Amino acid sequence: MKVVIQRVLNCSVEIAGKIKSETGKGILVLVGFEQEDNDKDIERISKKIINLRIFNDETGRMNLSIKDVQGEIMIVSQFTLHASTKKGNRPSYIKAAKPDIAIPLYNKFIEEIRKLISSEIKTGEFGADMKISLINDGPVTIIIDSKNPE
């Protein structure tokens, strides 16, 4: 499981020319799953995201979590996070979970985040051709890989 967390002033997801969802200040979470990912990965990464101190406190120091600032969350599936560029110039997505595995994991991830925070969770649409607009605040972008927890 890989996630890219971006601190945003706002973001939106457009599908077929229509805004599906949008947020104000908060985070955009792009998430991709591998075949071996499981509930433990989801629980650990969800807790990490909710408690990650990436928002500025009154002194300008990144010391506050999404909970502390009562920010909004957008979660978007993105299998391309598992692109392998080891050989050639065309990325391989062999490590990315197939939809029959990834969709239940994606839904479980959304539910796990909902359990941990009172903010409304906005989403994209699994498998859709989405246009993501955002204003990255900072910029602050954090990458977390459940298979390589550094």
Helix content: 10-25%
Total domains: 1
Mean pLDDT: 95
CATH superfamily: D-tyrosyl-tRNA(Tyr) deacylase
Structural class: alpha/beta
How many whole angstroms does the radius of gyration measure? 15 Å
Give the CATH topology.
D-tyrosyl-trna(Tyr) Deacylase, Chain: A
In percent, how much strand structure appears in the residues?
A: 35-45%
Unreliable segments of 5+ consecutive residues: none
Multimeric organization: single chain
Largest sheet, in brief, is: 6 strands, mixed
* SSE series: EEEHEEEHEE
Identify the CATH architecture. Answer: 3-Layer(bba) Sandwich
- For the termini, the CA-CA separation is 14 Å
Question: Describe it for me?
Answer:
21% of the residues lie in helices and 38% in strands. The chain is α/β, with parallel strands linked by helices. The chain has one domain (2-145): D-tyrosyl-trna(Tyr) Deacylase, Chain: A. The strands form two sheets. Strands 1, 2, 3, 6, 7 and 8 form a six-stranded mixed β-sheet that branches. A two-stranded antiparallel ribbon has the order 4-5. The longest helix has 18 residues, at 99-116. It is globular.
